[in-house]
Amino acid sequence: MTAIALAGGLAQRPGRGGHAWVFLTWLLGLRGLGCDVVFVDRLEEEWIGGPVEGSPQAQWLADTMARFGLAGDWALLHDGGRRTLGLGRAELEERLDASALLVNALGYLEDPDLRGRPARRAYLDLDPGWPQMWAALGLHDGLAGHEAHVTVGANVGRPGCGVPDCGLEWIAIPPPVLLDEWADGHVRGEGFTSVVTWRGPNAPVEYGGERYGVRAHAFRELVGLPLEVDAEFRLALDIDPGDEADRALLECNEWRIEDPLAVAGDPDAYRAFVHGSAAELTVAKDMYVRTRSGWLSDRSAAYLAAGRPVLAQDTGFPDAPEGGLLRFATLAEARAGVAEVLRDPAGHGEAALALARERFAAERVLAGLLDRLGVA
């Protein structure tokens, strides 16, 4: 059995069901291909203002792994990596020594001893634009120490994309999704929905004389959409108290705002929220749009796999000519996209599921990636 390690930051974000699905998809998808998987996370006392043992963050990680049959397949590094929860340090080292590949999401595993143990290392870019620009500006060296570099930005490294390639060859993959986990036989819900963070953890970046912003900047240009169409719009929105003016603006324009911790606070609740939707409206970060990165979210892949059409802001992601995934660049195009989904919701739902099977199925995406990386 081929052993593969995945490193990423799950524990830091308790109660974020969609964020948990990012890592669960990789772990369960690789396990479905017959791989032995281990997940490596890290958390420091100063990040959470108290001990890691017994913290809500550590419990969130433990509960999430146990819920999906991964109870013996994770380690949480803390105290500078000297101590671990889950697997002990020695056992973790043994698992990494046996691994043919480390998939290091955003370079999260920095410990050079642990990172160097698997036979190969692949950097996984989940946020195209930020790590590359940080590296080009000398602000981030996480790209180093990896033999391969993988991105969910379909256009990174290609002509016309504003994301610097940093002299590296980038392997582009679509966000994988577990079709069986998202299959849904329930009656379709109501309205266009999404689960979003208003700003997110990354600040805008100044690069090449341009300032690349976050989702809030793009969303303000679409704020009047619900007033122009006959459809309901619901957002499970993570927004800071300092952005109360933006929240009020959204509500004045008939966006229904819900607490993501209440409606999508674990992987099961997040999935139920998607199933309770008719379609997704996704607004991309300004970085993704203006660089033409070709980004599409793992969340949108889940909507597609649930048979829910997606109306997505255009980032240069490849066309889906049969429907199911519709794109917009302006408010007028978003309005037309809503009308098109409402015209034939069943047809677009069927096209969405077909597209998920064709392009996003985890067994296909991950098997293809392992093949490109030379991992049996």
Describe the protein.
By secondary structure, the chain is α/β, with parallel strands linked by helices. The protein folds into two domains: about 5-175 and about 360-370, Rossmann fold, CATH 3.40.50; about 180-360, 3-Layer(aba) Sandwich (Rossmann fold), CATH 3.40.50.2000. Helix content is about 35%, strand content about 20%. The chain contains 16 helices and 16 strands. The protein has helices at about 15-30, 45-50, 55-65, 90-95, 110-115, 130-135, 180, 215-220, 245-250, 260-265, 265-275, 285-290, 300-305, 330-345, 345-360, 360-370; strands at about 5, 35-40, 75-80, 85, 100-105, 120-125, 150, 170, 190-195, 205, 210, 235-240, 255-260, 280, 310-315, 325-330. The strands form three sheets. The protein has an eight-stranded mixed β-sheet with strand order 4-3-2-1-5-6-7-8, with helices on both faces. Helix 13 crosses helix 15. It is globular, with a radius of gyration of 20 Å. The N and C termini lie close together (about 10 Å). About 50% of the residues are buried. The mean pLDDT is about 95.
